[in-house]
Amino acid sequence: MTTCWCGSTEFLPFSVEYAVCGACGTLVSLVGLTPEELTVSDDEADFYGKAYWLEHQSEDLRFPDIYKRARTDLTERNLHWLKALLKYRLPGSKVMELGCSHGSFVALLRHAGFEASGVEMSPWVVDFGKKTFNVPIYVGPVENLDIPEGSVDVIALMDVMEHLPDPVATLTHCLKLLKPDGVLLIQTPQFKREMKYTELLEANGAFLEQLKSDEHLFLFTAESATRLFRQIGAEHMQFEPAIFSRYDMFFAVSRVPLQTHAPQEVEAALMAVPNGRMTLALLDLRERELASESDRIARGEQIETLTRMVKESEADRAARGEQIETLSRIIKEVEADRAGRGEQIETLSRIIKEVEADRAGRGEQVETLSRIIKEVEADRARRNEQIYRLIARLATAEADRNAKTESVTALASSVDKLKAETAARDEEIHSLETDLRRLFGHRAFRLLAKIARWREAKKLETRIKQP
Fold first, then answer.
1. How buried is residue 419: exposed, middle or buried, by Cβ count under 10 Å (0-12/13-18/19+)?
2. Where would one find the signal peptide in this protein (predicted)?
3. Tens digits of per-residue pLDDT, 401-425?
4. Closest by alpha carbon to 110, among 243, 279, 338, 268?
């Protein structure tokens, strides 16, 4: 299981070959070589052997090989590192560089008056550095060297910290070799937690060069590096400008507060040693080169800015030409539209006059209709009153009719009774007629009958007239 230098095994995804430690934020290789694979027993076959400095550098990484670097590093990174080191330690101090490669920085330090030596893993590289610069270089790792504790002023690790399989153990050992106020001077790639692998690929980010998973085992953030050194007892850190600031960080570390020297002190110290004037001249040349480079970069930026401004001006001019053409077309369209609108206005004015005349006529009609409506309303009110009176009379007539209907019904019932009685009497009369005819003859019977019918009719008339 992959473990971060801080002991955590909790990781966040980054790429196929790297993951971000969830505890400290360090970018950790998932496929890095083991400590055994990183040692050099066979210079012809092992990873950090001779091939690493020749074919691997030029063919795999497309960097200059060790022969070219032995020359170019002197005038570039070595002078940058020397200037930073002089800020914290003056000539005469004992300095050891771990991972010194060809040894040019060790040679420059000795030239400046430091008691300097180097350490490398490959015997072939150690032999190359000794022959090329005539400086003391030892075969590492540093843990195997017989160096008294508390005997070294400065240990420099330039592009080494990221290669250490156990950075806590190695750096703790380095602190033991330093004097109590000793300084670690370190350059290492700087990972930033906001970095995303896909975004680096899309932008071809400079940090992609540092993703060498077989050798760059731990890529620290500024925060995780600070955490590591606090953990091992070196709480005082000072970050310096990195020569390759696009992807590196450069800092000094100590167990005690860092003391610095003013430029006047540095100049005086260098003037006091045999080759100090030559070293000052080299540093001055480097400053002028940097100033020239800064001026060149500034001019380049100005040229780029002016070029961009010219392009923007050209684009703006083209855009304005298009705008002018567009506006001209719009003006023509507006003129045509204005002419059309003039005709529309005349037509609308005529229509408005007609509408005004029609409105006046309609006003008279409205007045007439209003008067008629008032008359109708008054007539309707009168008719309503008449209707109310007729309804009242109708109600009275209905009540009277109902009463008369009841009277007629009663009279009809009385008539029916009278008819029944009349029929009964007719039968009696008929019977009497029969008897009279038999007793008195036909004439007497007829006379009696008339008398009887007359009496009955009078009685009936009297009863009908009664209410």
1. exposed
2. none
3. 888 878 777 777 876 787 887 788 7
4. 279
Question: How many Cβ atoms sit within 10 Å of the Cβ of residue 183?
Answer: 28
The answer to whether residues 157 and 184 touch, using CB atoms and an 8 Å cutoff, is yes
Domain count, the chain: 1
CB 185, CB 212: distance < 8 Å: no
Which residues make Cβ contacts (< 8 Å) with residue 28, sequence separation at least 6? Answer: 2, 4, 11, 18, 19, 20, 21, 217, 218, 219
279 C-beta neighbours (distance < 10 Å), count: 21
Confirm if 253 and 183 have CB atoms less than 8 A apart.
Answer: yes
pTM surpassing 0.70?
Answer: no
Is position 301 within any domain?
Answer: no
CB 228 within 8 A of CB 172: no
Q: Within a domain: residue 28?
A: yes
Measured distance CA(41)–CA(38) in Å, rounded: 9
Sheet holding 27-29, edge to edge: 11-13, 18-21, 27-29, 218-219
DSSP state of 77: I
Q: What is the CA angle 163-169-174, rounded to 5?
A: 85
Domain range holding 18? Answer: 11-274
Q: Per the domain annotation, does 419 fall within a domain?
A: no
Q: What are phi and psi of 369, to 5 degrees?
A: -65, -35
Q: How far, CA to CA in Å, does 464 sit from each of 413, 421, 425, 458?
A: 11, 15, 18, 10
Dihedrals φ, ψ of 192, to 5°? -120, 130
With tokens 């970095």, the residue in question is 195
- φ, ψ of residue 95 to 5 degrees: the values are -125, 140
How do 115-120 and 137-139 pair as beta strands?
Answer: parallel
**List of E strands, 37-93:** none
> Residue 386: inside a domain, yes or no?
no
Contact 153, 116 (CB under 8 A): no
The CATH number of residue 122's host domain is 3.40.50.150
Per residue in 110-137, pLDDT tens?
Answer: 999 999 999 999 999 999 999 999 999 9
| Helical residues (DSSP H) of 219-275, grouped into ranges | 222-231, 263-271
pLDDT on residue 1: 79
Side chain identity, residue 419 = K
DSSP per residue over 261-299, as a string? --HHHHHHHHHTSTTHHHHHHHHHHHHHHHHHHHHHHHH
For helices 263-271 and 79-88, angle between their N-to-C axes, nearest 10 degrees: 100
